[in-house]
Amino acid sequence: MPVKVITDSVADLPQRIVDSLGITVVPLLVRFGDDEYRDGIDLTVSEFYSLLRSSPHFPVTAFPPAADFAKAYDQVTADGSDAVVVTISKKLSGSYNSALNAKRAVENSRKIEVVDSRCAAMVQGFVAMKAAEAAQRGASLEEVVRTANAAAERVHLLATFRTLEYLYRGGRIGKAKAFLGTTLKIQPFIGLKEGLVRPAGAAKTRAKAIDKLVSFAGKFTRIDELAVEHTQSPEEAALLVDRLSDLHPRDRIHVSTMTPVIGSHTGPGLLVVCLLGE
């Protein structure tokens, strides 16, 4: 039985990859006050940052309702296919549980498996990619699930951003820490460990922050997939790609603009290096 892969929009997959691998993307939601937008569908990246600057409301994000996953299941299994769903870490979002609830509601003759990627952003995208590649090779449902879980064990991420303001406004850090970081112009780093966002140090300047991102990638002896993501920092992303091309072929470095769902929590100026490797 053929297998189709579904993921949520936090995976940040470029459209060309979504199209070439036949991946279905279920959008998360972004709300500004009473106005609700489907991530990547009703709200473009440029529109999101325009609203971020002008709206009196701070953006709030929400996971997809079970009905949205159920609709995706109906679509991809209509031809008799089974489905594997790769979600953002269940410790970061309710997307995983929503996908499970939808599975319980619609599964009968169809087989649907939900995989917790234990990550987010393009590293989650890599997990979905590897699952979809296995599916295209004709792998069984169980083999696609094993491929996804194996990839989830080999993904790594390091991110830096310009300001702590959005972490503070979103309730992620206290006012004193945000004030200190802004005053000292510290460039904080975060990573992902065991499905949770973890502090990963800081740099005193933007240049040193980019150096650290390059150094992070340079520690790997094998890189299967590499991506650079950003929020409104295309020039810095291009510089990062230039420097990373010494470690990985330039034409195989994915470049992606970070989803508004993540931008809501970090603001503009986010730079991320995502890896699948060892």
What does this protein structure show overall?
This protein is of the alpha/beta class and 278 residues long. It has two domains: 3-28 and 63-152, 3-Layer(aba) Sandwich (Rossmann fold), CATH 3.40.50; 155-277, 2-Layer Sandwich (Hypothetical Protein Tm841, Chain: A,domain 3), CATH 3.30.1180. Helices cover 41% and strands 26% of the residues. The chain has eleven helices and 13 strands. Strands 10-9-8-13-11-12 form a six-stranded mixed beta sheet, with helices on both faces. The chain is globular and about 55 Å long. The protein starts with a strand and ends with a strand.
How is the secondary structure organized here?
Layout: E1 3-8, H1 15-21, E2 24-26, E3 29-32, E4 35-38, H2 45-54, E5 60-62, H3 66-77, E6 82-87, H4 95-106, E7 112-116, H5 121-136, H6 141-152, E8 155-160, H7 165-169, H8 175-184, E9 187-193, E10 196-203, H9 206-218, E11 223-230, H10 234-244, E12 253-257, H11 260-266, E13 271-277
Parallel strand pairs: 1-2, 1-6, 6-7, 11-12
Antiparallel strand pairs: 3-4, 3-5, 8-9, 8-13, 9-10, 11-13
Helix pairs in contact: 3-4, 5-6, 9-10
Overall morphology: globular
* Distance between the first and last residues' Cα: 32 Å
Report mean pLDDT, rounded to a whole number.
Answer: 90
Give the fraction of residues assigned to helices: 40-55%
In percent terms, what proportion of residues is strand? 25-35%
Text of the CATH class of the largest domain: Alpha Beta
**Strands in their spatial order, largest beta sheet:** 10-9-8-13-11-12
Major sheet description = 6 strands, mixed
How many domains make up the 3D coordinates? 2
Q: What sequence of helices (H) and strands (E) makes up the elements?
A: EHEEEHEHEHEHHEHHEEHEHEHE
The CATH architecture category of the largest domain equals 2-Layer Sandwich
Structural class: alpha/beta
Catalogue the unreliable spans.
172-181
Which topology of the largest domain does CATH recognise? Hypothetical Protein Tm841, Chain: A,domain 3
Summed up, the helix count is 11
Radius of gyration: 19 Å
Total DSSP E strands: 13
